[in-house]
Design goal:
With about 325 residues, the chain is α/β, with parallel strands linked by helices. It folds into 2 domains: about 220 residues, Rossmann fold (3-Layer(aba) Sandwich), CATH 3.40.50.300; about 70 residues, Helicase, Ruva Protein, domain 3 (Orthogonal Bundle), CATH 1.10.8. It is built from 16 helices and 6 strands. It is globular and about 55 Å long. The protein starts with a helix and ends in a 6-residue tail after the last helix. Bound molecules: adenosine-5'-triphosphate (ATP) and magnesium ion. The site of adenosine-5'-triphosphate has 19 residues, from helix 6, helix 11 and helix 13. The site of magnesium ion (MG) has 4 residues, from helix 6.
Length: about 325
């Protein structure tokens, strides 16, 4: 039987609002046919729980720097798909991935690119909503998300953003129950069987339950802020289109070097907003070119948004006695370059 839309809706309602936990399980167990994701169907109730995307982001074209994180993602996420035979030959255990690092440094962007590079559907559950809204049904919602992803026709990447919010160490009982359910689902989730690959992300990894972070469950990868060379790369990515349209009225290479030198500790997101704010000036003045002075004006008021993150991170790691995490964070603590 091909699962029709009304039946799907019924199952979702049972899973999220109702008491039909066992019914949901049974329907999925007996339903050998897989179904297509509701990517374009905005009316589908599944969209209240999960967002589907086919991101058009590429490692080299769209992401500046982050060489180590890209390499790690290739090794642990992309090659297991593109070199499947070798991974099977060596009986490689495939873990899930947890990306950690300061805000705005590219954790979500990298995950989208990794999904795109190996043709995985990018699925992100609305965990904030689930935690807030589905009182008493949260664990069922988590279970349903996994069951739904496993039932899809195509391989997928299941992305849990801001993991610390629902896997909080010593969290209240309702968070503990979500955390337990997630751990159970993740442990039973063998991505070699066509199950989704799980990627988590957190800018407050010290708050994530250490049991969730243990190496057998998640391979932790750090996403560090860009250094001088990487900032220049990011700025180039953000400005190249305008440069090719001859809309930059100064020496382009000098501009990139100068901006990269004047933005220590800026995240990729800070650099993006520097470029976007600078573009506002010619638009406001009805000019068709961007000048170096536009960037100077913005830089007079723009500051790095991640400096305070480091002091919080160091304090918190000491409080929770997270020595390894502290060591990792110190590797990319505020730079002079
Ligand atoms: N290395 C990079 N190259 C190009 N753009 C970047 C890079 N890092 C960040 N950006 C820009 O910053 C934006 C925010 O990045 P992203 O959402 O991936 O950050 P994040 O690490 O997930 O942050 P958060 O912890 O707040 O979720 C991106 O959409 C992109 O425009
Ligand atoms: Mg993010």
């Amino acid at each position: 039987m091909r699962m029709g839309r009304s039946l799907t809706n019924y199952v979702i309602n049972q899973a999220v609002y109702g008491v039909g936990k066992s019914l949901v399980k049974e329907i999925f167990k007996n339903n050998t046919e897989r179904h297509l994701p509701a990517v374009k169907d905005n009316d589908s109730p599944i969209n209240n729980l999960i967002k589907f995307e086919r991101p058009e982001v590429y490692f080299d074209r769209d992401i500046g720097g982050l060489r180590d994180a890209k390499e790690e993602l290739k090794k642990h996420l992309i090659y297991p798909r593109t070199k499947q035979d070798l991974y099977l030959l060596f009986e490689k255990q495939l873990g899930n991935i947890l990306l950690i690092g300061p805000p705005g440094c590219g954790k979500t962007l990298l995950t989208k690119a990794a999904a795109n590079e190996c043709g995985l559907l990018f699925i992100s559950p609305h965990m904030g909503d689930i935690v807030k809204r589905y009182l008493g049904e949260r664990e069922k919602a988590v279970q349903f998300i996994f069951e739904y992803c496993r039932s899809l026709y195509e391989p997928s990447l299941l992305f849990f953003d801001e993991m610390h919010q629902f896997t909080l160490r010593n969290g209240p009982p309702y968070i503990q129950r979500i955390n337990d359910e997630l751990q159970m689902q993740i442990d039973g989730n063998d991505s070699r069987k066509g199950y989704p690959i799980v990627v988590g992300s957190s800018r407050k990894p010290w708050l994530v339950d250490p049991a969730m972070r243990r190496p057998g469950r998640f391979k932790t990868i750090s996403v560090s802020p860009p250094n001088l060379y990487e900032r220049k790369q990011i700025l180039r990515i953000k400005l190249n289109n305008l440069f090719y349209k001859s809309m930059i009225e100064c020496d382009y290479e000098n501009l990139l070097t100068d901006l990269a030198e004047r933005t220590p500790n800026f995240s990729g997101d800070d650099l993006t907003s520097l470029v976007e704010d600078a573009k506002d000036i010619p638009i406001y003045e009805a000019r068709r070119v961007l000048k170096k002075e536009d960037f100077d004006k913005v830089l007079k008021i723009k500051r790095s948004s991640i400096i305070s993150w480091f002091s919080e991170a160091i304090r918190a790691c000491r409080r929770y006695d997270e020595k390894d995490l502290l060591e990792e964070i110190m590797k990319f603590s505020p730079r002079q370059t």
